[in-house]
Specification:
single chain, 192 residues, alpha+beta, Sufe protein. Chain: A, 12% strand, binds FE2/S2 (inorganic) cluster
């Protein structure tokens, strides 16, 4: 995942603030470089900007966030899932969770989101928490509090991303349970 992708939307709150603070200085610098048409200078500027972004991320977020951001787990949809749920958060972004269940154990878990980088991080942790557990165990294990604990906390403005990921996963598990009791629901949904 690249930095521009990470900042594509709301990004991580701390980074946006850092970028705003330097905006005028950076715009002036870009204007000067464009005037000079200096390719090396532009490359140098891009490199420095990327390093600055990474440094800002490191200062705001812990190593566990960096790990899940740079290598998100289970960031994919799953075909014909046994349970799925799409939830919209207070920010307007959505997370969709998918689970495949075998012998009452979560054999596969995946997610998609149109939300920020923090949501990808939280979705990644949520799916890891649930994978390999029984439905009941997963319902007990996946919560915003647990995601925040694993990540070493998040800035206040990002806490809702953890709530969104946990809620989507718990609803996907509830969807599985409701289909188990009424299998026609799955057939009906798949035929739509
Ligand atoms: S800002 Fe919307 S989910 Fe993170």
């Amino acid at each position: 995942m690249s930095c521009p992708g990470f900042l594509r939307k709301k990004g991580l709150a701390g980074i946006e603030i850092a970028m705003d603070l330097d905006q005028n200085r950076d715009i002036d610098r870009v204007k000067r470089m464009t005037d000079m048409d200096d390719k090396d200078e532009i490359e140098k500027f891009t490199r420095q900007l990327q390093e600055q972004i990474m440094e800002d991320i490191r200062q705001t977020y812990g190593p566990a966030v960096m790990d899940h951001w740079q290598n998100p787990r289970n960031f994919r949809s799953i075909e014909n899932p046994d349970g799925r749920a799409r939830v919209q958060g207070v920010c307007g972004d959505t997370v969709e969770m998918f689970v495949k269940v075998k012998d009452e154990t979560i054999a596969e878990c995946g997610f998609q989101t149109d939300g920020c980088g923090t949501t990808i991080v939280c979705g990644s942790v949520a799916t890891e928490l649930a994978s390999g557990k029984s439905i009941i165990e997963a319902l007990g294990a996946v919560s915003a509090a647990e995601i925040l604990k694993i990540l070493g906390g998040l800035p206040e403005s990002d806490v809702h991303c953890a709530q969104l990921a946990a809620e989507a996963l718990r609803r996907a598990l509830a969807d599985y349970l409701s289909q188990k009791n009424a299998p026609w629901k799955k057939k009906y949904r798949n035929s739509q």
